């Protein structure tokens, strides 16, 4: 499924102050007034403004830390010039003048290198400048000074998530990394740069699943989110992030457990309902449970695109086509640029055997984005349904050219070659699909069918069994019933 959010994953400063986030909220003005009063050494007025902010937003840590800074100044724990540099840095940060903010934080650190909160603020600024390694370094300094600094653990954990090697969009970099191991860490930061380097070095063919040259940022993130929970801060958010990490590691039971813990902590946590619902449906096949979670999410936000789209997929999976259409159309009404809704509508009409309407929605998706490989794949499947293999092959190949790491295109193309008895071509495509995603059960099913057609029941059974281990047992049970598999 094309990602509508990321579920995937919140960027490192999702809980930090941002002008856009608080536009039109009246406490923003109080916060900025407080910073300006503090810069001008009007401590009483500043303190009053920050306390006004906390009346509206009690958990806004920036205001809390500003009040603490004033208290530390009054108790002679920090110098006046240190405090003023901190407040100037916060005001520049609020104005998105990140370079100027860094200058002020650096001045404050030069005066007082033991003042923990400065490292946290500077880490947030490095994050905004996409200097993730430097952000992690500053969060680590803050944690070293204060081992109970829950917000710093959470921020660092999110940065580790950002740096990790994502299973679904990592490229074939094993050869590239081995040629230049000193650059291995940089490959995890931005897939675009990694792809460019990999192509130059002829390493595009291999998919990076795991390599010793790559730090397992998932484990580092897990430790930080557990530390955040231990400090009783951002508990629901941390459980949700743990769920996403375990999902990425294919540990779906742990993922569901953590999403459930997030919901138990905060029963209004919309994302956790959606995330758990997706796993119920996609991994467990428990569409009723999934729909229940999506319904709860939609009670919180009736126009949540992720919940509507995901519920539509579950309705489609249970044959409730009209309900699925309603949900996907609701997504289109909210945002007509969401291509996944159009391809999902096409999938519904494929299931209803209305190829004309299916193709109409594919064309709408391609009008939105002519480089949408999912839409070309859907177009190819419609041609498959019509028995037009030539056009199906043409569109699958085009989809593959647009996205060489989408294994489903190879699998469906292999089906066409297999049913036309071109087994060598089919096997090659299936091997590529399995190399990209070793857990694609359909690839093993089709491989088993190909071996069965060639008369090799031993290899057919081996592949059916592997598909069953991945949750697709239909062909394995049939083969066992026939006596073809032991």
Structural overview:
- The structure is a single chain.
- The chain is mostly helical and 486 residues long.
- It contains 27 helices and no strands.
- Helix 20 packs antiparallel against helix 21 and helix 26 packs across helix 27.
- The protein is elongated.
- The relative contact order is 0.05.
Gist?
The chain has 486 residues and is an all-alpha fold.
List the helices and strands and how they pair.
Elements: H1 26-39, H2 43-56, H3 61-74, H4 80-94, H5 98-111, H6 116-128, H7 132-145, H8 150-163, H9 174-179, H10 184-187, H11 191-200, H12 217-230, H13 235-248, H14 252-265, H15 270-282, H16 287-300, H17 305-317, H18 321-334, H19 339-351, H20 355-368, H21 373-385, H22 389-402, H23 407-419, H24 423-436, H25 441-453, H26 457-469, H27 474-481
The number of distinct helices, counting runs of at least 4 residues, comes to 27
SSE sequence, one letter per element: HHHHHHHHHHHHHHHHHHHHHHHHHHH
Principal-axis shape equals: elongated
Whole-number mean pLDDT: 84
CATH architectural designation of the domain at 26-146: Alpha Horseshoe
Total beta strand runs: 0
Helix content: over 70%
- The CATH superfamily of the domain at 26-146 bears the name Tetratricopeptide repeat domain
Per CATH, the class of the domain at 26-146 reads Mainly Alpha
For the CA atoms, what is the radius of gyration?
26 Å
Biggest β-sheet description: none
Instruction: Enumerate the spans where pLDDT stays under 50 for 5 or more consecutive residues.
Output: 1-24, 165-215
SS-based structural class?
mainly alpha
CATH topology of the domain at 26-146: Serine Threonine Protein Phosphatase 5, Tetratricopeptide repeat
